[in-house]
Design a protein that fits this description.
Strand content: 25-35%
Low-confidence stretches: none
CATH superfamily of the domain at 31-78: Cupredoxins -  blue copper proteins
CATH class of the domain at 31-78: Mainly Beta
Mean pLDDT: 85
Pfam family, one: Cu-oxidase_3
Largest sheet: 3 strands, mixed
Family: Belongs to the multicopper oxidase family.
Strand order of the largest sheet: 2-1-3
CATH topology of the domain at 31-78: Immunoglobulin-like
GO molecular function, one term: copper ion binding
Shape: rod-shaped
Protein name: Copper-resistance protein
Distance between the termini: 66 Å
Number of helices: 1
InterPro entries: Cu-oxidase-like_N (IPR011707), Cupredoxin (IPR008972)
């Protein structure tokens, strides 16, 4: 009888352990998301007014705050009259 109770206890404990560990494995990395509207504005970065490319109406553009293993989503809306390539 004691062997049966011990076997049942081990089975239940093992099942609970597997369920807890499997929930930890499903945890996702944090996600940060941004929306960029890229357009022209007039600014004076060198002291002379000139047309520059701005993000969300600001020059220089915003800083992306993320840590290693973060999922970063950036939705870019190109409002320029030419193609755009963003790199970082």
């Amino acid at each position: 009888m004691a062997l049966l109770q011990r076997s049942l206890f081990c089975s239940v404990f093992g099942l609970v352990y597997i369920l807890l560990v499997s929930n930890l494995c499903l945890a996702a990395d944090p996600t940060v998301s941004y929306e960029f509207h890229v357009s022209y504005i007039t600014a004076s970065p060198l002291g002379v007014p000139q047309q520059v490319i701005a993000v969300n109406g600001k020059f220089p553009g915003p800083r992306i705050n993320a840590t290693t293993n973060y999922n970063v989503i950036v939705n870019v809306f190109n409002e320029l009259d030419e193609d755009l390539l963003l790199t970082w």
